[in-house]
Amino acid sequence: MNTILMGCLATSICTALGALPALLFNRVTHRGKDILLAFTAGIMVAASTYGLIPSALKLSNLWILTIGTLLGTAVLTLLELLIPHQDLEHAPQRTDSGRTSIFLFLSAMGLHNLPEGLSVGVSYGSSNHDLGTIVALSIGLQNIPEGFLTALFLITHGLRRRTALLLATLTGVLELAACWIGLEFTASFRAVVPYGLAFAAGAMLFVVYKELIPESHGDGNERASTFSFIFGLLTMIALTHLLR
């Protein structure tokens, strides 16, 4: 249990660690943001396709994997439709609606963090003891650039640096809560673990292909973002291979 607690806490702490360097910057170039987002997307794709999906197949079959993945995609689609949110790249800069922009952006980060925390909790709840560590590591790695971009966005919209750091850290706390929910759910109902793994994979892939890739590849930085995506993918695969 101590290992599980440390893994869940580490993923959330990585968000705060990533936010710290943002306190030294007033802005980052559009190209830099795209590269960070693409790197994050690569890590999440590797976590889904190299960790969650194979584990779900190992514990069940193709039908369960398909159902769980589609459920994860459908739930994230509904949440996106029902919860007002605003993406990093499409948010206006300082205007009279700055507070609204901040609220909508934080809502978007919450949508991103829900499947991430869920995937960590479900992975720790599975019978594959190594999977939890691998998924926690992957989510922690991608939380570092995510925390940086979150804090930077808040600072450029006029919030004090300490306030920006606090709010960025709170998005990690939401992920920790989702991790606990995923762990408790799978611990009580072992039969749904494969569904949970596939659900988390589908939700994460939705975030990648609906949010991260379009945001990082739509403004003239496609080549650099593509290489960053591949580098993130290979980094996570290498770390997963070393841990097994």
What can you see in these coordinates?
There is one protein chain. By secondary structure, the protein is mostly helical. Helix content is 82%, strand content 0%. α4 runs antiparallel to α7 (193-216). Residues 90-97 have low confidence and may be disordered.
List the helices and strands and how they pair.
Layout (H helix, E strand, L loop, with lengths): L1 H18 L10 H30 L2 H21 L15 H28 L3 H28 L4 H28 L4 H24 L5 H22 L1
Helix pairs in contact: 1-4, 1-5, 1-6, 2-5, 2-7, 2-8, 3-7, 4-5, 4-6, 4-7, 5-6, 5-8
Q: What is the beta-strand fraction?
A: under 5%
SS-derived structural category: mainly alpha
Assign an overall shape: globular
Residue stretches low in confidence (pLDDT < 50, at least 5 long) are: 90-97
Biggest pleated-sheet summary: none
What count of helical segments does DSSP give?
Answer: 8
- The radius of gyration over CA amounts to 17 Å
The counted number of beta strands is 0
Order of helix and strand elements from N to C terminus: HHHHHHHH
